[in-house]
Specification:
The chain is an alpha/beta fold. GO terms for molecular function: iron-sulfur cluster binding; lyase activity; metal ion binding.
Length: 357
């Protein structure tokens, strides 16, 4: 039974202190009691969109654990509120908390399309797949209002440049017209994240994401239109969704996904505190078991920064997860291949149109 004291519609249940800040923020019990007596709301729990104008938008990815060379993010912070999200820590660099601030203070990069176009037109730039959402979801609720992702996809099409997408939002189908045109030239690959087939699990893990049914439908629609889809069964959290690996793999394969990938959950930086607070409030009967099993996957800690190990885990539980994934791939993805994207067209379209000579 979930406690009625939790922050409804959010993943994180508090704001952790920013490690870069001299000051800390605390909601005191006497303040909460004052609000109760006076009939005032202590926290309006509203999402705030904050405009920012960065100087660059395409990021070189150097981590050997991430299967991409370049990424870009039109938004910082994510209203989806996934409790395990590794991107939470990045919000501290902007002066905010990795907790509730990450979900409620969304930075909107209004000049993202302009910066992308400048990058693709640069004589020094050589085509290499740029992945949207290497950090935060490009189809989070903010996209409905600002449509920066759609504008960027139009630029990728104009310059015939390969683009990857990672999302857990069925809003991607709004842009099916552009995705089909990109796919005509082998320029698009989509990664749909799906962590559970249980709507109750989805609701508490990822409170403002698209339903599981809608995500599976998105995989099916994209696949029927020939657009390659990789299913991201990530993260696998022992004691929460680790028992679903085979069922998840079958569900996404049945809808046409060409491949699947996974990670074992890790809780670096502030995420360990945020996740621990969350699970003790939402799943108190499971909390100790789940936390101990996560620790067993990372040499006794929730935090793991070791390249090559941090996303795979180690130990008996991690080994069981890997064995299940191998079985799932062998059973449901045999003879399926996710294609490499086309990098050969872009050079001829550097000025936005095909060069004849």
């Amino acid at each position: 039974m979930i406690s009625h004291s939790i922050v409804r519609g959010r993943g994180a249940q508090k704001n952790t202190n920013n490690k870069f800040s001299t000051y800390s923020y605390e909601t005191r019990d006497d303040f909460l009691e004052f609000c109760r007596v006076e009939g005032e709301v202590s926290d309006k729990n509203k999402t705030q969109y904050i405009p920012v104008y960065p100087k660059t938008i395409v990021n070189k990815v150097t981590s050997p654990d991430v299967g991409m060379s370049y990424s870009m993010n039109m938004y910082q912070g994510c209203e989806h509120g996934c409790i395990y999200c590794y991107a939470r820590n990045a919000h501290e660099f902007w002066g905010y908390s990795a907790g509730l601030d990450f979900e409620r203070k969304i930075l909107v990069k209004h000049n993202a399309p302009k910066l992308l176009e400048e990058k693709l037109k640069s004589k020094k730039w050589q085509a290499s797949t740029i992945v949207l959402s290497g950090n935060t979801d490009c189809y989070q609720p903010a996209e409905q209002e600002f449509q920066l992702t759609r504008e960027c996809l139009e630029i990728f099409l104009k310059y015939r440049h390969p683009v990857g997408i990672i999302t857990k939002n069925a809003l991607i189908l709004r842009d099916l017209d552009i995705l089909k045109k990109l796919n005509d030239h082998g320029l698009i690959g989509v990664n749909i994240s799906i962590t559970s087939l249980s709507e109750e699990t989805r609701r508490i893990l990822e409170p403002r994401t698209t339903t599981i049914k809608k995500r599976l439908e998105a995989i099916e629609v994209l696949s029927k239109n020939g657009i390659p889809v990789n299913a991201m069964l990530a993260p696998i959290i022992p004691g929460i969704n680790s028992h679903e690996i085979l069922n998840l793999a079958k569900a996404v394969a049945d809808r046409g996904a060409l491949s699947m990938a996974f990670t074992v959950v890790r809780l670096n930086g502030a995420i360990g505190e945020i996740f621990t607070d969350w699970i003790r409030k939402t799943l108190p009967n499971k909390a100790d078991k789940v936390l101990h099993q996560i620790e067993e996957c990372h040499s006794g800690t929730l935090n793991d920064s070791r390249f090559g190990i941090r996303s795979r885990g180690e130990g008996k539980i991690a080994t069981q997860i890997h064995d299940m994934v191998r079985l799932a791939k062998r059973t449901y993805f045999n003879n399926r291949t996710f294609p490499k994207l086309n990098t050969q067209l872009h050079e001829s379209y550097k000025d936005g149109q095909l060069k004849l000579f």
